[in-house]
Amino acid sequence: MTALEELVAPLKEIEVLSPDECDEIRGRIHALREHWIPRRPDVPFFTLGTASYLDATNGRAAQYSAGAERTNPVLAQHFGELHQRLLEKLAAEVGEPCRLEPGLAYPGFHVFGFHPMFTKPLASVHFDMQYLSIDWSAYGKLDFDRQLSITLSIRLPAGGGGLRVWNINQLDLRKLSKEDAAAMQRANAEPEYHPYRAGTMVLHSGHQLHQIAPAPKLVEGDERLTLQAHAVPATDGWIVYW
User: Fold this and answer.
1) What is the model's pTM?
2) DSSP the chain
3) Most buried among 24, 179, 182, 214, using CB within 10 Å?
């Protein structure tokens, strides 16, 4: 097992924010309500920021870049110190410098309001392959096999929130025959649940099959606020983006 595999197997938790800091950042997120981007018409799901998995796919790399140009200044103005702390914490883990790039979307936020539907598995079951939709030509040689996905919880429902993870890695699947890949999927059909904690950053490879876990239960006023990002190693350190 490599050092990076040890870092994220199965997930790595890193303390980043105190409860008071989480409350203060939550207040800033809500103060920027006019900048929230609605993502589904049927439930209160928004992003504060541009997200590659939503905005760059299906040949929309230019739209993603334009979105980042609009949202990065807002995020930098109101969450620049949080970004810097995230970069410092990540650099301490990977042992290399970490940076943002103005041509890529800065880490932003998932915002889930209260809705009974969030007790059901609405989110997609997926591998994080958003990097395939971005134009990386200006950033040199990158190693996407070593990518990281990052979630920093700011506020979670009273009943908790987390991630469902299957013991199925797409880097392994692509080495297998169709029959062996199907056998692996059958043998690992049930996910493990990994609870989040507010103020804690979770790292995982993104190549492991996963899903935003449904909330075990919800009460009126519950919300789920998380900072989201990805990181990929380049020749001169890691690039962090969303």
Assistant:
1) 0.93
2) --HHHHHHSS-EEEE---HHHHHHHHHHHHHTGGG-EE--SSS-EEEES--HHHHTTTT-HHHHHHHHHHHHHHHHHHHHHHHHHHHHHHHHHHTS-EEE-TTSPPPEEEEE---GGGGS--SPPB---GGGGS--TTS--B-GGG-EEEEEEEE--TT--EEEEEEEEHHHHTTS-HHHHHHHHHHT-SPEEEE--TTEEEEE-S-EEEEEPPPS---TT--EEEEEEEEEEETTEEEEE-
3) 214
